[in-house]
Structure to design on (94 residues):
């Protein structure tokens, strides 16, 4: 018998392309063109459009580049998808 463990596995469908992130692990967001810190601006847009982010473009406040909201660099893994498979607290023995 394996000691592998997952507390909970769930799935969810979204009507629109949605940000799927790692919860509170994302701390910094940087511009895809100049590398400027756009954390506050990025979190504001993500909070506003989270489940309706689609393929929206926005002009970054650092250098003005207009780019899709899935192109900034996030310091923790994120994805943009219409389906989410979620494993909470996975543990792989040995
Ligand atoms: Zn920039």
């Amino acid at each position: 018998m394996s000691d592998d463990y997952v507390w909970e596995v769930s799935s969810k469908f979204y009507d629109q392309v949605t940000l799927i992130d790692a919860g509170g692990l994302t701390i910094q967001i940087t511009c895809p063109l100049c590398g400027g810190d756009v954390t506050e601006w990025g979190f504001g847009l993500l909070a506003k459009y989270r489940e309706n982010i689609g393929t929206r473009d926005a002009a970054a406040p650092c250098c003005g580049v207009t780019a899709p909201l899935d192109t900034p660099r996030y310091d923790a893994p994120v994805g943009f998808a219409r389906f989410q498979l979620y494993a909470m607290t996975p543990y792989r023995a040995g």
The helical segments are 39-49.
